[in-house]
TrEMBL record:
Keywords: Methyltransferase, S-adenosyl-L-methionine, Transferase. The keyword Methyltransferase applies. PANTHER family: METHYLTRANSFERASE, UBIQUINONE BIOSYNTHESIS O-METHYLTRANSFERASE, MITOCHONDRIAL. The keyword S-adenosyl-L-methionine applies. GO terms for molecular function: S-adenosylmethionine-dependent methyltransferase activity. One of its GO terms (biological process) is methylation. Gene3D superfamilies: Vaccinia Virus protein VP39. InterPro entries: SAM-dependent_MTases_sf, TPMT. This is Thiopurine S-methyltransferase (TPMT). The lineage of its organism: Bacteria, Bacillati, Actinomycetota, Actinomycetes, Micromonosporales. Coiled coil: none annotated. It comes from Micromonospora sediminicola.
Length: 217
């Protein structure tokens, strides 16, 4: 989840949201102290993003991108390399500070921000929105709100790219994370977006992954 620093009034948020927020900040803070490892701390952008950009070859010149749940910034840096003016945000202030350190001098704007209450100028403000492996990390009760909030970031004639771990309907889930069914991926269209291709991909570990496009007219 991607929300403001918990010093900014966390008592007004639902407890499930607080738990999700705290879990990520604790992990990043422990990793900074050398007491934990962040499983998604990779030396390259997500493979399904890199494959997609190699195939589609999006031209970011004069266009804005936003990375939801940017972590340490690998995906954001990848999009910036394609010419996008990129904003990247995360729930964890510790993660954002680390991203800024790792990519000192980068043109990416790394921010701590609230997906449920983003800056006003972010609404409909991005030609490319990347949601990669974040919504699945939220309690199921927050998923519809988060899905709608992600969709609201997409500009007219813009697109949303969703990358997620997947599951079949009826599969037992012991999250977090809670992998998404195809129907849950397709629900991103509820934010007034037109669905594009929804790819079902078998990961190297044998697990199911989704990569899906949604477009705003």
């Amino acid at each position: 989840m991607h929300v403001n620093d918990t010093s900014q009034g966390s008592s007004s948020r639902p407890s499930a949201e607080d738990d999700a927020i705290g879990r990520f900040e604790r992990l990043y803070a422990e990793a900074e102290r050398g007491a934990a490892e962040v499983p998604w701390d990779l030396a390259a952008p997500h493979s399904l993003l890199a494959e997609w950009t190699a195939r589609v070859r999006p031209d970011g010149s004069g266009r804005r991108a936003v990375v939801v749940g940017c972590g340490f910034g690998r995906d954001a840096e990848h999009l910036t390399g394609l010419g996008f003016t990129t904003v990247a945000f995360d729930v964890s202030p510790t993660a954002v500070r680390a991203a800024r350190r790792r990519h000192a001098g980068s043109p990416v704007r790394y921010e701590v921000a609230d997906l449920f209450d983003p800056p006003a100028d972010w609404a409909g403000g991005f030609d490319l929105v990347l949601e990669s492996m974040n919504v699945q990390a939220l309690p199921v009760g927050l998923r519809a709100r988060a899905t709608a909030a992600v969709g609201r970031l997409v500009a007219p004639r813009g697109m949303l790219l969703v990358i997620a771990a997947g599951r079949r309907p009826g599969d037992a889930v012991d999250g977090p994370p809670w992998p998404l069914t195809r129907a849950e991926v397709e629900s991103f269209a509820a934010a007034g977006l037109t669905p594009g291709p929804v790819e079902e991909i078998t990961a190297p570990d044998g697990g199911l992954r989704w990569r899906a496009e949604f477009h705003r007219s």
